[in-house]
């Protein structure tokens, strides 16, 4: 280590490596912490341990093939990632998408959101030391994964969307299973509150730490539950509606506190909203085709296309620059996790190590989403 | 604010801007590197434009030129705009940083530096983000060659 | 007095939490959500659309439906599929015709994206539901899908 | 018990008194080591089973009937594992630390009256000795954290020091509240008093409060969740024993469970009448005392496991706030109330 680094911090401070193998970093995120006793003085994320350069790989792939790469970015909202790319390509080609496809995509996207949030809830509990929540979260998530597996053939990396529609029609059991899940989950979701949300220890640990103001949230590009907990209305489903979101009524959950407990509550309440969206749509899936025929080789017209969608973590942007060939000239994914990570240093400084873990858990980071 | 009004307003601040709406769903502004920072400051601080949300910052390699594309949105007016900046200098491309205007640019600019080798003046912590410090070359440039790791179909 | 009511409310929330876990403790016998793998190997049934690995079904005459059109090879994003083909003389018509020699499938590179199966015009390949894909040597992961001596099912190309 | 008396007489008839007493001590030590090992291993299994039942799982059920031999297999694995450590560790202290923890746990266990006669060491300062011994264990943890030359371990060790010193007060004070009623620190005397009703009944409201405070502080003493800041898996990886492996790790691990057993045993002895049966139903069969003692202890251990698998972990400053702002004032107040009650003769006795 060169001397300048050593001289940079005061004598009481020391540096500690959290990660790349650490239980609280949920993957291979490395945080270089500068600590004074237990108090965090500086957090420097070090990324790239799982970088696969998906953007460069996209430049050599056809548009159908790109879709399956996006499964591997934010693997907890893989369907929504697929949808983002497909919407971009469909808008560029000005394809007319059947209503059935839009509704099915929306239902599965909301199921994905619930699956992602239940996993987050389980892991959130584990990060603050309540290990049992993990299993309760996974119990509910498994039911959604079964629905996915029956319809799409895969539990996590589904690749169910293709430009123009869906790869195949929904399974005949899909509607029945989804309704069963809704009934099941409506009895389990209040338990989440009883077990964790109202717990005095949990609330004392979560309230008033990691505060992010609204202005900072916008400036840091925070999106999803992180932004909404700071009172920043950033739901893409409301502001730039896509698929079937314009035909359902749902509330955008907004909190003004901006602390970790607000972020926690936003996600819990969002699960209720997702349930209501699914309930509105599940009985009204229109009959019809499940895809619009496209050419085998898709060539986008020359130009630039941008599409944003709301994943479970926030706003995912897909930016395609096309020169008219069968591959994109430049493909950029604006991932929500990347922006949400960049504000970690801002909100974690001054807290304790335990606060950092709780704060990081409510940012809900998925490392492949950050690294791409 | 409509695209036309935006065009009229911004061209009154900085005279030599190029505007285009072709082949894109947004109004595209191309700005000279020297005027980038002043234009961005105006776009953010002016109450009529108020672009307070930088939702995407993309490094670009157009073959001859290197550049950065900024996607901006206003959370109050809900209008969007795209600002592009280019340079022909492939050896030492440099722009002014915008991370004192939007905090999120700090990480995004580091990503662009990492993959395109574009430097940003006055950036507080400009170093490699994903790749190791001793990585040779800038992988997302079009002329990057790596015979071992890149599989060309 | 808020000092004591704080303690009271705090203890109450703790007891509520304990009642939730306690309820599951009492129902633990029938409520286990885990699976006893690999004990249940014999009865474990995957969904019909489950993507285990790509296989090429053959009928009882050792005939398959692959014409060697290479659409799956083109559709594959990872290069998991390689088709070795040549032009052979069809014994029936006497004309030279494209025929597959080997349809090679690298399971180790496959990401189960299902694009090859969507691309296949003759439904020659499909998903198998087995998932026990671990082997001791990765060369075993390279598989030849068409059985030796197999030939094209008549009537597929029409 | 007659068996012990017979062995005692037989030994003294066989050899001179000094040799006989040494042999007797060794025998007792071996018996207690056996109890220690079995209790430790089966508490681990119990914890895993209970955790599984809370978490909708089945728990270990492969090795032996319903997994009864699982922890034996684990212990065997740990014994046969290579011992690794860091190069820059302070070797002497690093190797010494696990023994501190395990020996103090072993010493404490010798005091408990499992039945009227099955008690190895009945000194007149019993409770005092227990509190003193159980706080020596923290030295082992501090040494382990400091000597392994790892920052995570050091943070864990420092937290452990803070935590034990604070909660030692509450454990001591809540036991002192009960001692007011017995008038003796000797464990056999404490049990004797409870023949007129368990102390938690005799002392009613203040005794229940003392018991609750003791359970909270006792859980903190053993460094178990929700007070497991010393290990704090999601914050410090493994805390003070990050750099330990194999048998040395097993010592820490076993000691944690033995400490839990000790805390529960103290509660049983002081609050629930040790080996005494409820309402004196089996007083004429003294051997059943072991059964009652273990039943009560296991019930309290189960309560501690229930805490662990339900609650999130506290933060270090909240841990101290809980002790110094809530438990300690309540405890002192409780002590005064109890003293007044004893003075005015308001205790319930049958």
UniProtKB/TrEMBL annotation, chain A:
Its main location: membrane. NDH-1 is composed of 14 different subunits. Subunits NuoB, C, D, E, F, and G constitute the peripheral sector of the complex. Belongs to the complex I 49 kDa subunit family. It is a peripheral membrane protein. Its EC number is 7.1.1.-. This is NADH-quinone oxidoreductase subunit D. It holds the Pfam family Complex1_49kDa. NDH-1 shuttles electrons from NADH, via FMN and iron-sulfur (Fe-S) centers, to quinones in the respiratory chain. The immediate electron acceptor for the enzyme in this species is believed to be a menaquinone. Couples the redox reaction to proton translocation (for every two electrons transferred, four hydrogen ions are translocated across the cytoplasmic membrane), and thus conserves the redox energy in a proton gradient. InterPro entries: NADH_Q_OxRdtase_suD, NDH1_su_D/H, NiFe-Hase_large.
UniProtKB/TrEMBL annotation, chain B:
InterPro entries: NADH_DH_suC, NADH_quin_OxRdtase_su_C/D-like, NADH_UbQ_OxRdtase_30kDa_su. Keywords: Transport. The keyword Transport applies. One of its GO terms (molecular function) is oxidoreductase activity, acting on NAD(P)H. Residues 29-144 form the NADH:ubiquinone oxidoreductase 30kDa subunit domain. Belongs to the complex I 30 kDa subunit family. This is NADH-quinone oxidoreductase subunit C.
From TrEMBL, chain C:
Residues 57-86, 101-130 form the 4Fe-4S ferredoxin-type domain. GO terms for cellular component: membrane. PROSITE patterns: 4FE4S_FER_1, 4FE4S_FER_2. The keyword Transmembrane helix does not apply. Pfam families: Fer4_7. This is 4Fe-4S dicluster domain-containing protein. GO terms for molecular function: 4 iron, 4 sulfur cluster binding; metal ion binding; oxidoreductase activity, acting on NAD(P)H; quinone binding. It comes from the Bacteria.
From TrEMBL, chain D:
One of its GO terms (biological process) is aerobic respiration. One of its GO terms (cellular component) is plasma membrane. PROSITE patterns: COMPLEX1_ND1_1, COMPLEX1_ND1_2. Its EC number is 7.1.1.-. It is a multi-pass membrane protein. Keywords: Cell membrane, Membrane, NAD, Oxidoreductase, Quinone, Translocase, Transmembrane, Transmembrane helix, Ubiquinone. Pfam families: NADHdh. The chain crosses the membrane at residues 20-45, 92-113, 125-146, 167-185, 197-217, 249-275, 287-307, 328-348. It is found in: Cell membrane; Membrane. GO terms for molecular function: NADH dehydrogenase activity; oxidoreductase activity, acting on NAD(P)H, quinone or similar compound as acceptor; quinone binding. It catalyses: a quinone + NADH + 5 H(+)(in) = a quinol + NAD(+) + 4 H(+)(out). NDH-1 shuttles electrons from NADH, via FMN and iron-sulfur (Fe-S) centers, to quinones in the respiratory chain. The immediate electron acceptor for the enzyme in this species is believed to be ubiquinone. Couples the redox reaction to proton translocation (for every two electrons transferred, four hydrogen ions are translocated across the cytoplasmic membrane), and thus conserves the redox energy in a proton gradient. This subunit may bind ubiquinone. NDH-1 is composed of 14 different subunits. Subunits NuoA, H, J, K, L, M, N constitute the membrane sector of the complex. Belongs to the complex I subunit 1 family. This is NADH-quinone oxidoreductase subunit H. The lineage of its organism: Bacteria, Pseudomonadati, Bacteroidota, Flavobacteriia, Flavobacteriales.
């Amino acid at each position: 280590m060169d001397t300048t680094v050593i001289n940079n911090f005061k004598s009481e401070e020391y540096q500690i490596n959290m990660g790349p193998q650490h239980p609280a970093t949920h993957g291979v995120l490395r945080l270089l912490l500068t600590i004074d006793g237990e108090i965090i003085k500086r957090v420097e994320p070090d990324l790239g341990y799982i970088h696969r350069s998906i953007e460069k790989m996209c430049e050599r792939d056809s548009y159908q093939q790109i879709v399956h790469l996006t499964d591997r970015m934010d693997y907890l909202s893989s369907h929504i990632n697929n949808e983002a790319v497909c919407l971009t390509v469909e808008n560029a080609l000005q394809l007319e998408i059947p209503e059935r496809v839009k509704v099915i995509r929306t239902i599965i996207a909301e199921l994905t959101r619930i699956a992602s949030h239940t996993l987050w809830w389980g892991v959130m509990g584990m990060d603050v030391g309540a290990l049992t929540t993990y299993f309760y979260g996974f119990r509910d998530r498994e039911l959604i994964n079964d629905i996915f597996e029956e319809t799409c053939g895969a539990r996590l990396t589904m690749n169910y969307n293709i430009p123009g529609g869906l790869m195949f029609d929904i399974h005949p059991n899909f509607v029945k299973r989804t309704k069963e899940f809704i009934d099941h989950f409506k009895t389990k979701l209040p338990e989440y509150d009883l077990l964790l949300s109202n717990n005095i220890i949990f609330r004392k640990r979560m309230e008033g730490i990691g505060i992010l103001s609204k202005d900072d949230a916008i400036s840091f590009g925070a999106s999803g539950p992180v932004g909404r907990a700071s009172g920043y209305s950033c739901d893409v489903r409301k502001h730039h509606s896509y698929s079937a979101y314009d035909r359902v009524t749902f509330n955008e959950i907004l909190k003004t506190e901006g602390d970790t407990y607000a972020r926690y509550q936003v996600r819990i309440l969002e699960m209720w909203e997702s349930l209501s969206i699914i309930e509105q749509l599940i009985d009204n899936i229109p009959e019809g085709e499940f895809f619009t025929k496209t050419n085998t080789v898709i060539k986008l017209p020359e130009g630039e296309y941008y599409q944003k969608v709301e994943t479970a973590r926030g706003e995912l942007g897909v930016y395609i620059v096309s020169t008219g060939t069968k591959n994109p000239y430049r493909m950029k994914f604006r991932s929500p996790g990347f922006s949400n990570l960049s504000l970690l240093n801002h909100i974690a400084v001054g807290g304790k190590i335990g606060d950092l873990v709780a704060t990081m858990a409510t940012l809900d980071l998925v490392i492949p989403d950050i690294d791409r | 604010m409509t695209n036309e009004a935006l065009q009229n307003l911004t061209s009154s601040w900085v005279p030599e801007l190029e505007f285009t709406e072709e082949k894109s769903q947004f109004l595209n502004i191309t700005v000279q590197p020297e005027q980038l920072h002043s234009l961005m400051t105006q776009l953010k601080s002016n109450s009529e434009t108020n672009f307070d949300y930088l939702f995407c910052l993309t490094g670009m390699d157009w073959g001859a030129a290197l550049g950065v594309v900024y996607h901006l949105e206003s959370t109050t007016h809900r209008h969007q705009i795209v600002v592009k900046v280019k340079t022909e200098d492939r050896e030492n491309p440099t722009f002014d940083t915008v991370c004192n205007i939007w905090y999120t640019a700090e990480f995004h600019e580091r990503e662009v530096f990492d993959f395109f080798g574009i430097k940003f003046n006055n950036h507080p912590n400009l170093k490699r983000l994903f790749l190791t410090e001793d990585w040779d070359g800038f992988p997302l440039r079009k002329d990057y060659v790596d015979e071992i790791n890149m599989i060309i179909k | 007095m808020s000092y004591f009511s704080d303690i009271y409310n705090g203890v109450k929330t703790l007891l509520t939490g304990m009642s939730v876990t306690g309820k599951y403790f009492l129902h633990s016998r029938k409520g286990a959500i885990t699976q006893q793998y690999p004990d249940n190997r014999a009865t474990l049934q995957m969904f019909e659309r489950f993507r285990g690995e790509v296989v090429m079904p053959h009928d009882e005459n050792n005939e398959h439906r692959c014409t060697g059109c290479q659409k799956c090879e083109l559709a594959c994003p990872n290069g998991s599929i390689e088709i070795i083909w040549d032009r052979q003389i069809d014994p029936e018509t006497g004309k030279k015709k494209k025929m597959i020699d080997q349809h090679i499938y690298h399971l180790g590179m496959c990401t189960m994206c299902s694009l090859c199966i969507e691309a296949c015009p003759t439904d020659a390949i499909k998903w198998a539901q087995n998932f026990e894909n671990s082997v001791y040597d990765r060369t075993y992961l390279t598989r030849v899908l068409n059985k030796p001596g197999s030939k094209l099912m008549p009537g597929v190309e029409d | 018990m007659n068996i012990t008396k017979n062995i005692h007489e037989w030994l003294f008839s066989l050899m001179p008194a000094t040799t006989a007493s040494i042999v007797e001590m060794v025998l007792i030590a071996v018996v207690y080591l056996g109890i220690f090992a079995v209790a430790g291993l089966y508490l681990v299994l119990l914890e895993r089973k209970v955790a599984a039942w809370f978490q909708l799982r089945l728990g270990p059920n492969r090795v032996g009937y319903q997994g009864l031999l699982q922890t034996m297999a684990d212990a065997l694995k740990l014994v046969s594992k290579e011992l690794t450590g860091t190069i820059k560790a302070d070797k002497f202290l690093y190797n010494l630390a696990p023994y501190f923890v395990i020996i103090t746990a072993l010493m404490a266990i010798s005091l408990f009256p499992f039945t009227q006669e099955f008690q190895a060491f009945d000194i007149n300062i019993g409770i005092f000795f227990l509190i003193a011994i159980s706080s020596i264990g923290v030295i082992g943890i501090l040494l382990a954290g400091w000597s392994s030359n790892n920052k995570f371990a050091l943070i864990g060790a420092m937290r452990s020091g803070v935590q034990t010193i604070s909660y030692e007060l509450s454990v001591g004070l809540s036991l002192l509240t009960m001692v007011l009623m017995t008038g003796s620190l000797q464990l056999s005397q404490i049990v004797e008093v409870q023949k007129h009703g368990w102390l938690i009944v005799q002392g009613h409201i203040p005794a229940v409060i003392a018991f609750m405070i003791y359970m909270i502080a006792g859980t903190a003493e053993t460094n178990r969740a929700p007070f497991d800041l010393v290990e704090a898996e999601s914050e410090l990886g493994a805390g003070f024993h990050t750099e330990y492996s194999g048998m040395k790790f097993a010592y820490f691990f076993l000691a944690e469970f033995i400490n839990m057993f000790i805390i529960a045993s103290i509660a049983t002895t002081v609050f629930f009448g040790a080996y005494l049966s409820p309402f004196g139903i089996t007083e004429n069969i003294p051997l059943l005392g072991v059964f009652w003692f273990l039943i009560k202890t296991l019930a309290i251990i189960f309560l501690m496991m229930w805490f662990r698998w339900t609650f999130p972990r506290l933060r270090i400053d909240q841990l101290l706030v809980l002790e110094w702002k809530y438990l300690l004032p309540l405890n002192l107040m409780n002590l005064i109330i109890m003293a007044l009650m004893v003075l005015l003769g308001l205790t319930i006795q049958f």
